[in-house]
Design brief:
The complex is a heterodimer.
Chain A lengths: L1 H4 L1 H20 L3 E2 L5 E2 L12 E2 L2 E3 L4 H9 L4 E9 L11 E10 L3 H18 L5 E4 L2 E4 L6 E3 H8 L10 H15 L6 E6 L9 E2 L5 E9 L2 E8 L4 H17 L9 H6 L6 E7 H9 L16
Parallel strand pairs in A: 1-5, 9-10
Antiparallel strand pairs in A: 2-4, 3-4, 5-6, 6-14, 7-8, 10-12, 11-12, 12-13, 13-14
Chain B lengths: L10 E4 L2 E11 L7 E8 L5 E7 L5 E2 L2 E12 L2 E6 L5 E5 H4 L11 E7 L2 E6 L3 E8 L13 E6 L4 E5 L7 E5 L4 E7 L3
Antiparallel strand pairs in B: 1-2, 1-5, 2-3, 3-4, 6-7, 6-9, 7-8, 9-10, 11-12, 11-14, 12-13, 14-15
The chains are: A alpha+beta, B mainly beta.
Chain lengths: ~300, ~190
């Protein structure tokens, strides 16, 4: 029986939830909840929401969490379900669990340091010490994790510079087929500083060229988490959303209403960083599970 | 259909050739485009190939029906089957049947996949019951299976069976391995 076979994974999953909550409580974070049924979602070209009676199932709690930050909450975290249509596979289930946290005063790399401490704390409490055994490999998780910029990684593994002339389609293909496979399998990798068009809610750092302050964490080939220095320029954010909405319309994809309440709150958002971390994948790592279905009691196909 | 709806066993048409999807690997960077790495089996010649699709790509789904058909008789190099639903007759070339042909007995019901009138595959039952028409003495030379001998069944296939089997016995045979399973009945 499938459910009895994965019982140890689900027990470990529950323990990981306890440890995540204990970690954030000890760091002074407040656990919050935001709605799953929402009037709109962030317009993003490649994230398709489920719709329901003119409403949406949340694709991410990001906008609501930022509304709390704008109202004066300074350290918040949440574990919640997110819904993304058509995403199913070895590492995807259309309903999945996200851990998000935001910290006022931090930037994206400060949040990456939080992530390093979180993963190491979990590993220690789960008696993994400083390495995780995942799918036949020993992964040394001692911080600091190796960091590589998008530009360096692409020049090295794909032979081109996405900042010189960005071909977004080629970017995705090369990221998956060349860049991620080139990462050291025995260490986590932080990929940071993205082309400006590839981070719709991240702050830009001026320069030549300017970069989006976005960082992603990869462990054991899994894309685990995505961090931003959060954009708090409402005019810039509205401009980016408009572009995305236009693209969605032009390509005949889903319709999204402009997230007005979020944009209204944005001028009150202090300098902060935040991250979205895939909890199912984190549990996969600590259970040495090859597929997301081994850590979810009822994945979509048998829900 | 949208590539997102494709799953294992979906059948799709590429340049007029039908393929069965044997495996779908879904890869998607969190903020990026989804990629679908498909392993496809050509339903005409059985060869496999890999093909990559991206989110919102469209593929042409092809409907392959599974029909129950009864084997009637052999005609030259073809085997004639009749669809039990509409009584249409189909000629199946012997190459498509391979070793399966040696278990075809008049009246045997097979599952036949048909795409727009064209036969793609004939699946015969895993087990069939056939009568022994010609027995042989136990092979004295074979020391390892001293208790076995070769017999000929009513469809012409020869098979190793235990020594107690005799002409007129009906045997259960595994068609996948061409091997004896058990004796179903014996002539008194």
């Amino acid at each position: 029986m499938r459910l009895s076979r994965i019982k140890a994974n689900l027990e470990r999953r529950a323990l990981i939830y306890d440890l995540i909550r204990a970690f954030f409580r000890s760091e002074g974070f407040l656990e919050i909840e935001t709605p799953l049924l929402v009037p709109t979602v962030a317009p993003e070209k490649y994230i398709t929401p489920f719709t329901f009676n003119g409403w949406f199932l949340s694709t991410s709690p990001e906008m609501h969490m930022k509304r709390l930050l704008a109202a004066g909450y300074s350290k918040i975290f949440q574990i919640c379900h997110c819904f993304r249509k058509d995403e199913r596979g070895q590492f995807h289930n259309p309903e999945f669990t996200m851990l998000e946290w935001y910290r006022v005063g931090a930037d994206y790399m400060g949040i990456i340091e939080d992530t390093e401490r979180l993963v190491c704390t979990l590993a220690k409490k789960l008696k993994h010490r400083s390495t995780i055994h995942y799918q036949g490999k020993e992964i040394d998780i001692m911080p600091p994790w190796p960091r590589v910029t998008v530009r360096e990684a692409f020049l090295r593994s794909a032979g081109w510079d996405p900042f010189a002339r960005l071909d977004e389609e080629r970017f995705e293909v090369d990221l998956v087929e060349k860049v991620i496979p080139s990462f050291d399998a025995g260490r986590p990798t932080v990929l940071w500083d993205y082309p400006v068009t590839m981070a719709s809610l991240a702050r830009l750092r001026p320069g030549s060229p300017p970069v989006a302050e976005r960082a992603e964490v990869f462990i054991g080939g899994l894309e685990l988490a995505n961090a931003y220095s959060e954009l708090n320029d409402a005019a810039e954010q509205e401009k980016r959303f408009k572009q995305e909405i236009e693209t969605l319309k032009r390509e005949g994809k889903h319709r999204v209403v402009m997230p007005e309440k979020f944009l209204d709150a944005l001028p009150g958002l202090p300098e902060c960083g935040g991250i979205a971390l895939g909890v199912d994948r984190l549990v996969m790592l600590f259970c040495d599970a090859a597929s997301i279905e081994e850590v979810i009691a009822f994945p979509r196909d048998i829900a | 259909m949208d590539i997102g709806e494709v799953s294992r066993n979906t059948k799709i048409l590429i340049n007029g050739v039908p393929f069965a999807v044997e495996d779908v690997k879904f890869v998607k960077p969190g903020k990026g485009r989804a990629m679908y790495y498909l392993k496809l089996r050509n339903l005409f010649d059985g060869t496999t190939r890999d093909q990559t699709y991206h989110s919102s790509d469209k593929v042409e789904e092809v409907h392959v029906s599974s029909n129950e058909m009864q084997y009637l008789y052999k005609e030259g190099d073809n085997y004639v089957f009749m669809d039990n639903e509409n009584f249409e007759q189909h000629h199946v070339p012997k190459e498509m049947l391979g070793t399966k042909s040696q278990f075809l007995k008049e009246g045997l019901v097979a599952t036949v996949s048909v795409m727009e009138g064209r036969i793609l595959e004939v699946i015969i039952p895993k087990f069939v019951e056939l009568m022994v028409v010609k027995g042989a003495a136990s092979t004295k030379t074979d020391t390892i299976t001293a208790q076995s001998k070769m017999v000929e069944l009513e469809t012409g296939v020869t098979l190793a069976v235990p020594a107690f089997v005799k002409e007129g016995d009906v045997l259960k045979v595994d068609t996948r391995t061409s091997s004896y399973v058990e004796r179903v009945s014996t002539k008194r």
